[in-house]
Structure formats: structure tokens, C-alpha cells
User: Fold this.
Amino acid sequence: MLSSLRCVLNVTRGIIKLASLKVSKQVLNKLHVKGVFQIHFRFLQTFLVIQSRQSFTLMSDLETPPPPVQTGEKRVCPEDEEQDFPLKKPRTEAEHDNGAAPSRDEEASGLPEEEANEGEEEEDGGTFADMMKHGLTETDVGILKFVSDHEGFSGILKERYSDFVVHEINKQGKTVHLDDISVPADTEEVQGEDHQPKEDDVLTEEQKQQLGDLQLYKNKEGNVSIQVMDDTKEKRTLIHKAIKTQFPGLETKTEEKDGCKFIVAYHVAGKKALAVKTSAAPRKHFWPKNRGSYCHFVLYKENKDTMDAINVLSKFLRLRPNMFSYMGTKDKRAITVQEIAVLKITAERLAHLNKCLLNLKVGNFTYKNHPLKLGELQGNHFTVIIRNISGSEEQVHQAMTSLKQTGFINYYGMQRFGTTAVPTQHVGRAILRNNWNEVVDLILKPRPGAEKEYLVRCREEWAKTQDPEAALKKLPNKRCLEGQLLRGLSMYGKKNIVTAFGLIPRNNRLMYIHSYQSFVWNTMVSRRIEAFGLKAVGGDLVLRGTTAHVLSAEEAEQHSIHDIVMPLPGFDVIYPTHHIGEGYRELLSADGLDIDNMRHKVKDYSLSGAYRRVIIRPTDVSWEVIHYDDPRISLVHTDFEKLEKKPAPVFNTEGKYRALRIEFSLPPSTYATMAIREILKLDTSIKKQTQLNTLWFN
Assistant:
């Protein structure tokens, strides 16, 4: 029977192993099945990969690992190899780009890659059957309604990461593009600079080759020694500067051997290099007074999330990640373009990175006197390819016309609520109830479903002994949430859980309570749509400036559903005066919370609340159905391809495959997945996708 199953499931790009066979992310990475259920496999792949990385994110704004490089996928560098949410929310939500939740591994990603990924190689635990039994559906998190009555259709979302392209819309309303990688001329010349030797002249071609190999990780633990022949301080300074400018990622020091002085270059990311201690204070680099303190630049990235990209840049530039600022984080499994600012780093140093970075490109440099702030952006512009669509031209037209004219319900997407059998909103509810033993139990207890083997062993050890040190020893990667909590418990004891819990990075801690707020909002919005449909009624809320106003029945006649907002629960919001407002109180009361007392003993967990629009109508909506023959080619002409003067993709009107190409713009903190859900009429939860797959297999 097993062999016959293998025959049946031997599909175009790989094999799924069912039931007792363990499912690897490598197998699912190759998966490609033709037919109505194609989209479900992409979500299933996402689920497994995220499980293996211990991430809270899922689906369309998710983080998934890169697929194998295929012919036609565009790469950025020619060389070999590669929000969060404010505590006191503003009156209207603008905290996080298209809804992407912070990654659990964000804090670890600033470490050397080999350390941060320690333990990644271990095989995933659990089976395919396990994964089908556990997890959340949209119903579990309050996502119940659609705004249109058109017939849905199937398709493949994010078949390739180049099928999802995001361009930031800055605070001036301009869509950000990477279209210039030149270095701007300095506004002030350094006195006497023309009389100094050029940096390129102080290094020989052989030395440049050795330094280049060291920079590109070919000799990560080694170093390159350059003897200073004409030993003067000026000559040594010039060599130091030449190495650091031309080879970002390398650090230098001066050593004396046998009476001769050498400049020693080593890789800043090497373990031995990280251990190097220098007693001398860092040199202050010259910075012209009339140059802005911050270098603003455009970051183009492929298949890498914003924090990972920032950490890569910080390693090469020998900076702390917090020296960079940005307006929002972007998806990983996508091509994204956004503005970044960094303090007192020249455009020249940044431009040199283009020689050695993979899947990253920087450009459009300008100097300004201010950093960037989270939430300052006006939104994001999306270009999305949904491949192998089953819908007719009429179905596509109806779906897209509805999206353009009416919009979609502004639900928080499934990635907000976690991928495991323990939803993040349950942990958030326990925090708000001040039940810290339950918080620890929810995070550390054994749970059904697929997890890494070392996490399973860690949970079993905790359940058996309640000994944080013993459980911690089961984790090869102690930077995951479980490891951080166990380390806190071993340091501060089980009677001081609040302090121990504080060792988890703040953004991750706040994610739990914001997840609970999101669950309440989704649930109450579904009830409001069920009760009153898509029209404004007396008792609804609208915003006047930043203040919420309750509509009378007469005022409601002058407003549409697009004006209506609903509150996230907190101590500084008001609620609708119709029966949905009372529903908030009932829901929180059933969860053991007092809606009139949302302040917490721990200030970090006090919720002020916020208002969020019920319906979002995308702007700049356009679409076309395209035909193509080669599923491996990119169907979007990217900024990098335009810089390289590569031709735009040519579509064959008689091609055997059909895809829907969509463009639209959304405001911050809005989930693109919820817009696509409205188009396809598809349940986006992993549990539902795996159930549908199983029915199809049977």
C-alpha cells in the first residue's frame, strides 16, 4: 500500500510522505500538484517550514525558507553566496507594515549565522497526520465573513517568492523604488584630500584578492597580514581606511612582529574575530558639518525579512542593528523595497556592500538630519501573482471589481495567532489575567503536532521534572522563546515568573497580548457584519480626527461602512452603543477580564486600546490574466532587473498556464492575505488546507 501511495503521489516536483512517514521541508519544498488544490500545498509547505524555525508567522505575510534556486529566479548579487508594536497604541493603528508579526528568531539573528542557526539541522518531529489534527482555523480566531457574494476560485499564491512584490509608500506618498546605485558627491571636500595618496593605490592586486576571499567567507577564521613598508602613522591609517572602505565586513588592527609593523585584517563575523579585545578607543571618523547625520537609502531584498537584512548590513559595517531605522518590516518570502536610515555611515561604504551581498541591494542614497520612525509610512504597494487560477474571466472580473469597489474585511490574518496547537492569544489572555503559572504552562507544556525533536524533549523534561536547568539542557538553540523563558526561570526561580518572563524580548512578549486584542477585534467585527451588514447604523463609531464619535441614527445615514471603526479593547477607548458594544464586555468577562480595568500591574502589559477600520478598500487596483508556458520564470519585472537593463517578461497569449496578476495599495497594519482571501474565497488556515489535501488524496 505504501509503495502504491508513493506512485500516486509522485508529482511534478517531488513526493509527499504521509502518515507514519516523517515529512521533511526538503520534500515539501519540491511539491507541485496540478489541479484545484494547488494552493493548499504551498500553505502546507509554509506550515512545516515555520514549525521547523519556531516562528509565529504564517501564510501570506509569512517567513518561509528559500526554495531551491531554479532557472529563471532572479538573484541580486553575482558573487557566490547569499514592529514592532508600540506599548501605548495610537488612536488609529499604524504600527506594523502589512501585518507581518515579529519573528521569534529576530533576537538571535544578530548573532553569527552559524550560532543563530544552531540546531537547525535536526529533523522535524511529528508526522503529516499529526499536523492535520491540530492548529487553528479561521473560525477559531473570529474570521467568519466575506463582503461579496461572487464565486471563489483556486490558484497558487507565492509559488515563487518573486510572485509577491512589495514597494513601500513613504510618508510623502511616494512609492519607493531602487533605481540609482551611484554614490552622491560630498557637499564638502576634506582639506588637502587631493594631495593624499588614493586608497586604491596602497593595496596591491594580490592583497586585494586575499582580502576579497576573506570578505566572501572563503576563509572566515583566517586573516590577512599586510606589512607596512614605509612605516608612518599616515600610511597605516590609509591602509586601515582602504581595507574598511573597499572590503566591508573586515576589521583591522596593527601588530608588531620581529620589529616590523603589520596591518592584520580579519572577518568581523568569525568566532575568533569576535573574541578579539582592543583596549584603544575607537577612532572617530571625519564627518562634514553640513552633511546630514543620517544616510537614507533604499533597500531591495529578496527572500529575506527586514530584521535579517538589517543584521547582515550591521555585521558587514561593524554596527549594532539599532543604528538602523526604518518605517516598517516587510515579508520574507517576497521581493520588497523600502527606505532605511543609518547614523553616520557614508553612502560610499554602503555602496561597496553591493559587491558582496546576496539577495540584497542598496541605493538611492541621500543625507538627512533625521532617522526614520516605525509607522511613518503611508502604506505599501503590492504586485501579486496567483498562478494556475481555475476561475473564468467572468469570475476573476467579479472578484476584482468587488475588491476595488467594496474592499475586504480588515481582519487580522492567521499569522497573528501562531502555528502551533497553543494559540498565542491564549498566552496573551493568561498574561492579562495575571496568571503567570498558566503563562509558563502554555509556553512550555508538551503539545500535539509537529515540532523539532529537541523542543519535544525539552517540553517532556519540563513536564517530568519542572526543572528549568534540566529542560534548558535539551535545547541546542537556547535563543528561542522557550530557551529564554527557561533561562529566566533558572536565574530568578519559579516564584519570580514575571522577572523570568522579562528575559523574552519585549516585542515577543507584547505579541502575545496584541494577539488577544486581535482575536477580540476579529470576533466582534464578524458579529457586527452579521448583525448589520455593510451599512452604517446608529451606535457605530467613526473617527473625528483621532477621537471616536458615536453615530446617531440620523448621522448614520450620512456615513458608509468605510467610515466605521471598531475598538481593540483597552482603558482608553469607547465601545459601540448598540448590542455589539455589550458583546465586548461579555466576551472579556467570559475570559476572566474586566473591560473597565484594562490596566495591568506590570506597566508593559497595560492596554490603552486603538481603533481599526472595519472595511479596507485598496487603492490603485489593477489586474490582468496572463498566460505563460514556463512555470520557472518570474512574471514580474523587478527594480533590480530594470537596473541591470534586463527585458521585462513576455507573456504568450496561447500559454498553457494562466495566472492572475494583481496590483493594489494598502495602508499600514493591513493584511494583504485578507485581501487575497476575499478574492479567492479561501480559508487561509493551515488546518483547513491540510484537511482539503487529505480529502483529495483519499
In short: The first strand starts at residue 156 and ends at 157. Residues 278 and 624 are 60 Å apart (CA to CA). The two ends are 13 Å apart (CA to CA).
